[in-house]
Amino acid sequence: MTQAQRLDAAHDPCIVRIRGLRYGIGGRTLFDDLDLEVARGEVTAFMGPSGTGKTTLLRLITGQVRPDAGEVLVDGQDVAGLGRAGLYALRRRMGMLFQNGALLTDLDVHENVAFPLREHTRLPDSLIRSIVLTKLHAVGLRGAAGLMPYELSGGMARRVALARAIVMDPEILIYDEPFVGLDPISLGVVLRLIRELNDALGITSIVVSHDVREITAVADSAYLLSGGRVLASGKPSGLADSDSAEVQQFMRGLPDGPVPFHYPAPDYAEQLFGHLSP
Amino acid sequence: MKPLIRELADRALESTLAIGRYALFTGRLLAETPRALLRFRLVVGQVHNAGALSLVIIMLSGLFVGMVLGLQGFDLLERFGSEDSLGTAAALGLVKELGPVVTALLFAGRAGTALASELGLMRATDQLSAMEMMAVDPVRRVVMPRFLGGIIAMPLLAAIFSMIGIFGAQLVGVQMMGVDPGQFWSQMRGAVEHDDIMEGVIKSCVFGVACSAIAVYEGFHAMPTAEGVGRATTRTVVISSVVVLLLDYMLTAVML
Fold first, then answer.
1. What is the CATH number of the domain that holds A268?
2. Contact B135, A88 (CB under 8 A)
């Protein structure tokens, strides 16, 4: 990427552009001709029922998997066209919070947060310590620096992972289902952190979730995905006013609708009283 | 008939592909070795995990194998009136054969399974994916230190096994069966040559490469589920044991 291209990309209001994306796995098409954009400096949410491919979309954006067709552009760079070195250079500008935190279990909290710094910089120990404590303070866990991952609750582990994700001062912060399994207090803390970190650090945040209420509270814009396409997009609060039955079913959490409650099966009465095998 | 032939062909193809994948992975590990040695602190930690933590089982096994060798050797040699050669027989048996082989089998069962399950669990809990996302190559950061730690630990463990084994044979032969201690040690010193020791060292180094490569390959490529980790652990022991015995025959045939 040339200097001029980099400058152009920096002025692009969208940091992620996906055009005509097609991707399938195991003979099943997850995305077919998908187009979406993530605005720079905003919190953008990808929502949708389980199995829609939200996490796979994150994996496509971060280059963990490659699309069958179409483009995934991150800050002007086609992720699929990058080699290992280019991909790693791009990932240094990203931070990702995994669903379970994915902390390294043989390192304590301090060393987990320090891990990217030790791997990518030659900073002295004293400076690394200061940076780590600053990041841990930002997530409210400076006092837990000496704990091992198995001594942390689920919410604490996710906050430590968040501190690790921001330790290299990324431009894009990606959250994969950050609210799953959290108690109301931890959930409130994570919600606040997503918003505050985005605004304070001037970064772009992408949040994958199916928790409508939480997303509505924190995101600037949202995409509702289902069946490999974008069902609706816009302000999260506006999605609830959509006329689409599919959107209404998801936003209101209705058990039956366009997405059926029952998995496809033979006729109930015939299966119960007939001679059909199960 | 046709499906059977097709199934056999599919299995042969799958086995060939698996051997190819192993070879490519091991080739990559060997190519990464010089760079990995620059971060020797990580390797030392893994020598401790694979080696020091296996010491008790290696020493206990070495003692009992040596004692059995002393009993059986004495019984056999006594029939020919050459029980004074017990030290030579025990030392050669241990240094050239039993030391490297039994150590490798024990290593596969203790350290190999630990390596495979640790890497498999790291895969299952997204730790390896997290490293990839932090632009850190998990092969360089996680796999290489474990691979090298196993390679370094194996010859050291085999040497300790053989030493303790010789002590066990001496305990039975000299202390219990009444073999002359002077004859036991002097015949051993006279008969065991530099080449015999090198044979054991070469074998244990080769077994170290094989067992470590199998363990890290199986763990690194484990399915990210509880069943996948269990399967990787089992495969590590089974494949390592068969490969060690196969390599032992080949190396013995070449070096004799």
1. 3.40.50.300
2. yes
